[in-house]
Write a structure and sequence with these properties.
Elements lengths: L6 E2 L6 E6 L2 H9 L7 E6 L8 E6 L1 H4 E3 L5 E3 L3 E7 L7 E5 L5 E15 L2 H16 L22 H34 L20 H11 E4 L7 E4 L6 H7 L1
Parallel strand pairs: 1-9, 2-9
Antiparallel strand pairs: 3-4, 4-7, 5-6, 7-9, 8-9, 10-11
Keywords: DNA-binding, Nucleus, Transcription, Transcription regulation
InterPro entries: TFIIF_beta (IPR003196), TFIIF_beta_N (IPR040504), TFIIF_interaction (IPR011039), WH-like_DNA-bd_sf (IPR036388), WH_DNA-bd_sf (IPR036390)
Main location: nucleus
Length: 250
């Protein structure tokens, strides 16, 4: 809460239980909001020193829900409480009204989990939920006036733009090859060996940074050193190794 927020502590000494319930049970309670009683909790003492067995029975009227094809279906009504340890925790329950008023409802003295007593009833519910989720709801509507705002076309604008872009990229690669060669020869004039994977390699100065495209051009003019002192580097082929010197002499 924010500093200065007032909290109603009228029920501060009240003890409450924190019970985890199945989703279907929570939905049935929400549907029955304001309808009064939704079920009964029963405590059956187990011996003189044993802990009481707690069960919950959902009212028959509140258990009915919609099945397949608008047929009524009953969710599990009989439930048992599985007691859970507090684990040394201190828990409390608060509520907040529509006017942002906060009230303390009580201290949690017992935790429990509400489970359906008969597994067969729960299994029937899960089968129904699976069938409802897999059922396709199709709706057919009769159109009186034909739709004229849409006309079928064999080629949409985004298709044409995509093809145009691919075509332009193809031309750009063919046009840039000579530019890449010029930059490669200029780079090999400075250094005899290059590793294109290292930062600052020849691919950084290439107009196309795609390594597969760069390697394709390198194979035409260069050799790859797979072993030796210059392992993993490229150098010019013998027929190109004096390219820079010949160019300067000319």
């Amino acid at each position: 809460t924010m500093p200065g927020t007032k909290v109603d502590l009228t029920a501060a000494k009240q003890n409450v239980w924190l019970v985890k319930v199945p989703n279907y049970l929570s939905l049935q309670w929400q549907k029955a909001a304001g309808a009064g009683e939704v079920g009964k909790v029963r405590f059956a003492k187990k011996g003189n020193q044993g802990m009481a067995e707690v069960s919950f029975t959902l009212n028959k009227e509140q258990a009915m829900t919609e099945g397949l094809d608008n047929q009524p279906f009953s969710v599990p009504r009989q439930h048992t409480f599985s007691m859970q340890p507090m684990g040394g925790q201190t828990l409390a329950v608060f509520t907040q009204s529509s006017s942002d008023e906060i009230a303390f409802l009580g201290k949690v003295v017992q935790r429990a989990e509400c489970k359906p007593k008969f597994f067969e009833d729960y299994l029937r519910l899960k089968k129904l939920q699976a069938k409802k989720s897999s059922k396709v709801n199709r709706l057919s509507l009769q159109i009186e006036d034909p739709i004229t705002s849409y006309k079928p076309t064999a080629s949409h604008s985004y298709h044409r733009e995509g093809k145009k872009k691919k075509k332009e990229e193809g031309h750009r690669r063919r046009e840039d090859k000579q530019l890449v060669l010029n930059k490669l020869f200029a780079a090999f004039e400075k250094h005899q060996h290059y590793n294109i994977k290292r930062p600052g390699g020849i691919d950084q100065n290439s107009p196309l940074s795609h390594k597969l495209y760069l390697k394709k051009i390198l194979r035409e003019i260069g050799m790859y050193n797979a072993r030796g002192p210059h392992k993993h580097t490229w150098e010019l082929k013998p027929e190109f190794s004096y390219y820079g010197k010949e160019k300067k002499n000319d």
